[in-house]
Amino acid sequence: MVDFGFDKLMLIGAVALVVLGPERLPRVARTVGTLLGKAQRYVADVKAEVNRSIELEELQKMKGQFETAVSDVQASVQEQVDSANQALQSTWSDLSVDGTSSEGGLIGGHSVVPVYAHPKKNWRLKRGATPLWYKQRLGVKRHAQSGAARVARFRPPRRAS
């Protein structure tokens, strides 16, 4: 950039005073200051835009690195799962070839656990595990009671007068 010292600025000011005159010099100085401020703001905006684009490129590079790392981890996990599944299938096929059945019979001298079947019990019909005598001793409510019945139940007895 152009380097202006104090002596050069004084020379430019003296020439402007002679050429423009004292009447027009303040108005021209304000205009020049305004244009200089606009130019500085424009340069600052361009710098900010360049910085934003550089940061965006860096973020995109980081995103690409992260995606490659994720795909590598996913591939290794899938490879481990496949190898474990293959080992399980080979063990299961060895057991089912040696035995008679896979539906709960004996396979290779060992009993096979049958497939879980839900008991299909209706939970509404189950009785509580707490005995009735214990509930009565503690005063646990077993039935719904209306407000009027509750008031009548707990109303103190009338005194005879």
Tally the helices: what do you get?
4
SSE succession: HHEEHH
First-residue to last-residue Cα separation? 114 Å
Q: Enumerate the strands of the largest sheet in spatial order, edge to edge or round the barrel.
A: 1-2
User: Percent helix among the residues?
Assistant: 55-70%
Mean of all residue-level pLDDT scores: 82
Strand portion = under 5%
| Major β-sheet profile | 2 strands, antiparallel
Structural category is: mainly alpha
Residue windows where pLDDT falls under 50 for at least 5 positions: 100-104
Number of strands: 2
The rough form would be described as elongated
Using only CA atoms, what is the Rg?
46 Å
Short account of what is shown:
This is Sec-independent protein translocase protein TatB. With 161 residues, the protein is mostly helical.
Describe this entry's structure for a reader.
The protein has helices at residues 6-20, 25-98, 132-138, 147-154; strands spanning 106-107, 110-111. By secondary structure, it is mainly alpha-helical. A two-stranded antiparallel ribbon has the order 1-2. It is elongated and about 120 Å long. The termini are far apart. 0% of the residues are buried. Its main location: membrane.
